[in-house]
Amino acid sequence: MTLPEFIEKINADLQNEWTHLQFYLYHAGAVTGLHAEEYREFLFDAAKSELEHVMQFTHRLFGLNHKMPNTDGHSFPKYTHIGDILAHAIQMETEVADNYAKRINELDALAGAHPTVAAYLTIFYENQLEDSYEDCEKMRRIMADI
Prior knowledge:
Ferritin; single chain; mainly alpha; 5 helices; elongated
């Protein structure tokens, strides 16, 4: 794999982060039910966290001289019930955590030609993996009471 090919994968990961930001922000407003206020706050905080991820990925791409980072996400289903929202959020976060683990393995192929970039991006993706994995754990615990 070449560095430009890997940069395109980073850009695809950025698109997923945009999707998460939009998903959590939309559902912070859409959630209904007895505990909607608490869930609204939780989902809004999740959106703020995703905004940070969007910025981190965008900075990485510009730092790697990518001229056109993604600025929008994928479409996503719309829900009002917190159980549906969390189930989909867990699915999204699990998918990106798996992607980040895959990216870490893929960086081995870049280490020969770009050792510093590969080492830096490994740390970057390890941090992203940790955040997504912990988000999944947190939401699974919340789902236990729904």
